């Protein structure tokens, strides 16, 4: 995998504008394997993220996260309510993720991995 920089020229009423975009190219064949549906990625970081999502198990991980939270909707709702209630304290750093996990464990008797906290929205997605 190689990230290549491409330049796109657009005509505007003020002249020609050059826009830099990035595409993912297979090093051995030279074939374009990712180009953001023809538009190119705006940053190298976005191109790397897309590559990791598509080819390094990103889709599988997210489907596992979805399954995890679909089975634990009550916990997800509790966590979201807790976060909205204590929003200022969380923002100030007075309450941290470990405190939320501890509260969830007290309430439901289940340990939730720390990395799962940011994916509770999957419990409420219809897909």
SSE inventory with pairings:
Blueprint: E1 2-12, E2 15-25, E3 32-34, H1 44-55, H2 58-70, H3 73-85, H4 87-92, H5 97-108
Antiparallel strand pairs: 1-2, 2-3
Describe the structure.
With about 130 residues, the chain is of the alpha+beta class. It folds into two domains: about 55 residues, no CATH class; about 60 residues, no CATH class. The protein is built from five helices and three strands; from the N terminus they run βββααααα. Strands 1-2-3 form a three-stranded antiparallel sheet, with helices on one face. The longest helix is centred in the middle third of the chain and has 13 residues. The model has no long low-confidence stretch (mean pLDDT about 85).
The helix/strand series, from N terminus to C terminus, equals EEEHHHHH
The residue-averaged pLDDT reads: 87
Rounded to the nearest angstrom, the distance between the terminal CA atoms is: 31 Å
Low-confidence stretches: none
Structural Rg = 21 Å
Large-scale geometry: elongated
The share of residues in helices is 40-55%
Major sheet summary line:
3 strands, antiparallel
Query: How many domains make up the coordinates?
Result: 2
Number of helices: 5
Strand percentage lies at 15-25%
Strand order in the sheet with the most strands? 1-2-3
Number of strands: 3
Q: Which secondary-structure class do the elements indicate?
A: alpha+beta
